[in-house]
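Researcher: Batch entry, complex prediction.
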Amino acid sequence: MSGDLAIRNVRILGGPTVDLVIRGGRIAAIGVGLAAPGIPALDGKGRLLLPGLVESHTHLDKTLWGLPWRPNSAGPTLKDYIENERRILREVTVPIARRAGGLLEACIARGTLHFRSHIDIDPEFGLAHVEAMLALRERYRDIAEMQFVVFPQTGLLIRPGTAALMEEAIKLGVETVGGLDPAGIDRDPIRHLETVFGLAGKYGRGVDIHLHDREESGVWQIERIADFTAATGLKGKVMVSHAYCLGQVPRARIEALAQRLADLEISLMTSAPADTEIPPATWLREIGVNICCGSDGIRDAWSPFGNGDMLERAMLLAYRLDWSKDEMLAAALATVTDNGARALGLHDYGIAVGHEANLVLVEAETIGDAVVRRPAERTVIARGKVVAKDGKFIDSRL
Amino acid sequence: MSGDLAIRNVRILGGPTVDLVIRGGRIAAIGVGLAAPGIPALDGKGRLLLPGLVESHTHLDKTLWGLPWRPNSAGPTLKDYIENERRILREVTVPIARRAGGLLEACIARGTLHFRSHIDIDPEFGLAHVEAMLALRERYRDIAEMQFVVFPQTGLLIRPGTAALMEEAIKLGVETVGGLDPAGIDRDPIRHLETVFGLAGKYGRGVDIHLHDREESGVWQIERIADFTAATGLKGKVMVSHAYCLGQVPRARIEALAQRLADLEISLMTSAPADTEIPPATWLREIGVNICCGSDGIRDAWSPFGNGDMLERAMLLAYRLDWSKDEMLAAALATVTDNGARALGLHDYGIAVGHEANLVLVEAETIGDAVVRRPAERTVIARGKVVAKDGKFIDSRL
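Model: Structure tokens for the complex:
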């Protein structure tokens, strides 16, 4: 694949109609009536052009995508969810390559080209998920930009051997060090954070911590995460995922903390759940905290919901927060584009000359229209090559 | 159109594979390997067969469907929303027939065949919306079952002349008497309810009241609605729409009231908003309160959201309430099928011999799969005739 393509007659983020010329997978020119002799042309038909969407938090390795419907059997406590999943994943015989690969192709077909996926490690199955996901990344390397977080799903300190597995995973190529409820699950928050930030410091990596712990407990832990971020010089490289607690305490309680999150460039990830509180994103955004969105688990043992459509995730966030004005619908889109790119430290992101041509053409009138309507009619272009059309991934690699 | 059709190889609500024979628009037989000589046949390909979906609360007359994107300019107070809408509808020149008709066709294309739509009346424009909607109903009478509520959007008592317009609308053929925040908007709750229930009693109609009023104020008004329902003998014919207040007070406060709602068969309608509280449907359902779903306004001056897809509405409710188990995903589907039919007093509803053949074929494995995935691949059959396929309405009447 050459990665040469002229895209005619598109509106970048709803702007005026222009052409793009892509050479060698990168945007070579943006303008009106550009000549592009000898390059295949795609008629954009006046559609909206968006940068490739960003999935900031998912768990591809654990999906049951493509398997027969399985009645959800999880809960009610977080521990029950974890144990239920372990049981189910022991039973499933379809390999990760097929489940995660199928889901990855479905996500790409909806326009996502940049992923952060958490990968379970566990003394029971060791690095099996890591190895499968690293192989998957290789298989789609020319299409999707994937980064991984090593994730101690069953606990870190409470599961001896887990920290060593995390270190192994990082040596194998996993970028980011994960954590999970330092107090609620691991029951020793400071040692948990010392371990996570210690690994990050040793290997020069970022940190991404799942935080479900509630109210004051959760807020206190985010304060400690900020402390560790400052102490280890990891400004701009830390994410707190979920952080329901920030929506569970009065705003006055977190005003100073929110300013620290902005200053330390600690991103917050939400999947926009509607059955629990979420961080007060309208206000946090105003003071400069970076908010991005992720699907979290998609069709897995935790939940039957999800389809990997990041336009739908932006809609769910806007719906959750009553973001109805154009400015706020654009803010919702940003959580699955620019903010995600910022959180994941993506270079080269966005529609600009010199950047990789990772693009989604959407049959929509405006950004707001794209977010609320989430049209199925999309053409996905990865590094100058059309990889999906109308929801269908072209040339499956399963 | 004859309304004769054999549908082969479908799974009713996910049950075993069967055939249906439809004659004269009604289900004549359900069984395995049915003979149906001389009748056109449709291969269901093993898909899920659902009854036509029920939209229990929308505002077709006010939609801006099909118009160019209009940035939302509403709010912040309820009164601001109302005034903003009045201003916009004064400016819009595309007639209701085209806007509401376009939306109606889109809803039908997604499988909705039964509608309750509120219609604004107002001293400013009188019965214009009513007349347009009655004409629209006629135009689609052979496909969609539509019932109307006369809705005093700008207030009843505070807008002199409104009660007389409501009575006129009922005489013209509107079925149900509407109300709106008897305390918060009309500022005289008892006279408001006397007027609404008085009209209902005089003409033998049902009642459907929009209730946005919050917390104790809202709960107190629902108690009064129950009083009026009992006093006027309207058991089974009353709906309270929205009723956020029931999710805003402790459960203990509404235990007796909830039992009265069940006993008086007062239905609750929610659009499953995620930015405010909703009635505690998991518990209310257990004690027998009928909960149904509506889209509320779709792409109108109130909100840019909505697409009329009742499977999506069921998903949003399930997502809102963490209904992930199969039983609860079926409960979510029921809010847009059986519960809606019960709330609207539909006869003939459901997939059974003798009933009208109003059906949706969905490319889904189970009810849960249909709700979480909302496949676009649907075939919609109204009274034995295929009226829509794959999201496209056949033979538009616009």
